[in-house]
Amino acid sequence: MFSQVRRHEARFVQEDEEGPAEWGLAVELAGMSEVWRRLLELHVSGRDGRCTGCRSPVRAAPHWPCTLYRAAAHARRIAADGPRRPAG
Ligand SMILES: [Zn+2]
Fold first, then answer.
1. pLDDT tens sequence across 37-58
2. How far apart, in whole angstroms, are the C-alpha atoms of residue 15 and residue 79?
3. What's the CA-to-centroid distance between 68 and ligand 1, angstroms?
């Protein structure tokens, strides 16, 4: 019984490693389709491989896909799948 719980936790941590910040943001964005759609439009790869949506005059843009794009892409997936409840 105890080992089952530990295995469940291990799986959860593994999934979380992909980017907990992105996932948290994605879950919030999922309910706001206008926001994540706009993010997906704005945050695209430029010719230099950097995100055009994150481009700023004061600092270099991150390489695409940036955190916001990935969060928006997750949000789109969550919105497409519908709300999910954790088992148990
Ligand atoms: Zn970006």
1. 999 999 999 999 999 999 988 9
2. 19
3. 5
